Amino acid sequence: MRRLWLLLLLILCGCDLFKPPPLVREIINTPEAPAAIGPYSQAVKVGNTLYCSGQIALNPATGDLVTGDIQEETRQVLKNLGAVLRAGGADYKDVVSATIYLTNMDDYKIVNEVYASFFSENKPARATVQVARLPRDAHVEILFVAVKAE
Q1: Is residue 118 a part of any domain in this protein?
Q2: Is the pLDDT of residue 1 over 90?
Q3: Model confidence over 133-142: pLDDT tens digits?
Q4: Distance (Å, rounded) from C-alpha 82 to C-alpha 125?
Q5: Residue 138 falls inside a structural domain
Q6: Number of folded domains in the chain?
Q7: Is residue 7 predicted with pLDDT exceeding 90?
Q8: What's the pLDDT score for residue 66?
């Protein structure tokens, strides 16, 4: 009984033995994805959650925008995000949320077709928004949040 009271006292007093360790922010960067074109990281990992910055269709080797049609752009964006996910210890199956920015909502159907080929199961929650303009005049930008199951 005495031990129980001591344990209860330690808990109520906020003893550090019972506090979880502080969360550490880990910056994720990989040469397999395009370098950031502004003051941001490709991703930030906190605990088992990976916050991926938005990616546009940049070729990681050259830094040039992949041009062509919306399918090619979307595929490159998703490949870039895949490289960032891997660098952070995750994969597409770990993605829990995605946000898609399009400069033309008429591209929605085509972007969905390409996107679906990367998510056969465990489809994440998602929002798609039309915007006036994207960096480098890209037509699509996508960002992910992934959670790696422990």
Answers
A1: yes
A2: no
A3: 999 999 999 9
A4: 17
A5: yes
A6: 1
A7: no
A8: 96
Q: Which residue segment(s) compose the domain that 143 sits in?
A: 21-147
If you compute the radius of gyration of the chain from its CA atoms, what whole number of angstroms results?
20
70-87 and 108-118 helices cross at what angle (nearest 10)?
Answer: 40
> How many C-beta atoms surround the C-beta of residue 127 within 10 A?
9
| 8 A C-beta contact, residue 101 and residue 54 | yes
> For tokens 């960032």, what's the residue?
84
Residue 112, domain member (yes or no):
yes
Tell whether the torsion through CA atoms of 141, 115, 103 and 136 is positive or negative.
positive
CA atoms lying within 13 Å on the CB side of residue 106? 2
**pLDDT confidence tier of residue 64, bands split at 50, 70 and 90:** very high
Q: What is the share, in percent, of the chain residues with pLDDT greater than 90?
A: 80
CATH code at position 124: 3.30.1330.40
| Whether pLDDT at 2 is above 60 | yes
* Helix, strand, coil abundance in the chain, percent, nearest 5: 35, 25, 40
Q: Assess if residue 47 is contained within a domain.
A: yes
String of DSSP letters for 38-99: SSS-SEEEETTEEEEEEE-SB-TTT-PBP-S-HHHHHHHHHHHHHHHHHHTT--GGGEEEEE
